[in-house]
Write a structure and sequence with these properties.
Blueprint: E1 2-9, E2 17-25, E3 31-36, E4 45-46, E5 51-54, E6 56-61, H1 81-95, H2 98-114, E7 117-122, H3 133-144, E8 147-150, H4 159-176, E9 183-185, E10 187-191, H5 197-207, E11 214-218, H6 227-234, E12 242-245, H7 251-259, E13 263-266, H8 268-273, H9 281-286, E14 290-293, H10 302-317, H11 324-343, E15 358-361, H12 374-380, E16 387-392, E17 395-399, E18 402-403, H13 408-425
Parallel strand pairs: 1-4, 1-5, 6-7, 7-8, 8-9, 10-11, 11-12, 12-13, 13-14
Antiparallel strand pairs: 1-2, 2-3, 5-15, 15-16, 16-17, 17-18
Helix pairs in contact: 2-3, 2-13, 4-5, 10-11
């Protein structure tokens, strides 16, 4: 397949902008040639001058939270982050059934696709529907056609039996999933403050023969201070690990994260919503840490995370010159580096040999666009434009703003029925 007559943002080594170009998509889902000019092939797909760029990546989210959208919490609002976990999220995940898990993931992934996101890294929890739950999440990925990974959030908050069940679910899924699968796996941990020494050691031991990366919340709130030191000592944090948040950390802990080549994922909108603080992105970058962006289940729109990350760093530093470069690097380089480092998959750029994970955006720039002013167009223009189409691994997932193989309305109606019953149990 040849895609032609598109304005192409390559996000390659030089961030080339081709005002009118063509991209070859090979039968195996890889990108062949990328060149300026229209293709003369009669079977080429005309993109009518729209903007073609790599599909976005969400490096940390919770698909199980989709069915909580609009839920009402009776009584006074929780006063702090631990109270929010106890009053909302830990009650919600205990109420989930196997079907809830599937429909929550399915609707969350449809929303992601419609926002131009081609890769989603999920962190799952459903204590009373744990066994086989990762298969339900995987089934949703395959239905929508997105790339990604999932894991089970092991924790001691539901007792020793709950922790052991979580370990077994991670091990079962990791033993089954193929190395180059469309949906990969990680070994999930909730956070250091909900994991006792026995459970943490059991997780590390269970993962030794699997060699998977750990996916864990790190220092999201002040209640989880010193998490970096403890998790490093336990052997959790390394080049395959995803450490979400890393807000309440010291300079020495930033150095340790960089030394262990840990992948840190910033989640700005969720951090605002939970009032837990703002990660110091410039300091993380100065330390040499790999930093990406995620949503933590707050929204499927990674463009909004990019904008929030940019603006929050300016407010945090009281300096309008900071934030933009770090947020842009996190979304467009950090996220693709994380996927490559953990799974070896080349996504996030339009270049020969990379996977054809592409989004087509209805953006016709009113001013010149090139590699030097690209950030301004991304922040103030592209991020606000509708996504017309999405391709993952060379196959169309979205065309004309709608999923190609799914009845979105029917799925939404079924999800709403599941949510109603879930809220009544909650």
């Amino acid at each position: 397949m040849i895609l032609t007559n598109a304005r192409i943002l390559t996000f390659d080594a030089t961030n080339r902008v081709l005002d009118s170009g063509s991209v070859e998509v090979l039968a195996d889902g890889a990108i062949g040639f990328v060149r300026p000019g229209r293709a003369l092939d009669a079977h080429a797909v005309d993109l009518h001058g729209r903007l073609l760029m790599p599909a976005l990546i969400n490096c940390h989210t919770h698909l199980y939270s989709t069915l909580a959208r609009g839920i009402h919490l009776p009584g006074p609002p929780p006063p702090d982050f631990p109270a929010t976990l106890k009053k909302l999220w830990w009650r919600l995940d205990r109420a989930l059934t196997e079907e809830d898990v599937y429909y929550s993931a399915l609707t969350g992934l449809i929303d992601s696709a419609r926002c131009g996101v081609g890769t989603v890294i999920d962190h799952h929890s459903s204590p009373n529907a744990c066994a086989g739950s990762l298969d339900s999440v995987e089934r949703a990925f395959l239905q929508v056609g997105l790339r990604g990974a999932t894991c089970y959030e092991t924790s001691d908050r539901n007792g020793r039996r709950g922790a052991d069940t979580g370990i077994r679910e991670n091990v079962r899924f990791l033993e089954r999933v193929r190395p180059a699968a469309q949906v990969g796996g990680m070994f999930g941990l909730h956070a250091a403050f909900t994991l006792g020494d026995r459970t943490l050691a059991a997780c590390v031991e269970a993962n030794q023969s699997l060699g998977a990366g750990f996916h864990v919340h790190v220092a999201e709130d002040v209640c989880d201070r010193s998490a970096v030191r403890r998790l490093c000592a336990a052997g959790v944090l390394n080049e395959k690990a995803l450490a979400a948040h890393c807000i309440h950390i010291t300079a020495a802990e930033r150095t340790a994260l960089a030394r262990h080549r840990v992948n840190v994922v910033h989640n700005p909108q969720s951090n605002c919503n939970n009032a837990v603080g703002i990660a110091d992105l410039p300091a993380l970058f100065r330390s040499g840490t790999i930093v990406g962006l995620g949503s933590d289940g707050y929204s499927p729109r990674m463009w909004d995370e990019f904008k929030a990350a940019t603006q929050l760093q300016k407010v945090r530093a009281r300096d309008s010159r900071v934030g933009g470069a770090e947020a842009c690097t996190a979304l467009f380089r950090g996220n693709r580096d994380i996927v490559r480092q953990i799974w070896g998959t080349q996504v996030g750029r339009i270049a020969p040999g990379a996977r054809a994970d592409l989004q087509l955006v209805d953006y016709h720039p009113p001013t010149p666009i090139d590699s030097f002013n690209l950030f301004g167009h991304l922040l103030f223009g592209v991020s606000n434009a509708p996504v017309d189409s999405l391709m993952v691994n060379g196959r169309w997932v979205l065309r004309g703003g709608h999923c190609v193989n799914l009845d979105e309305r029917e799925i939404a109606e079924k999800a709403a029925a599941r949510a109603k019953a879930l809220w009544e149990r909650f």
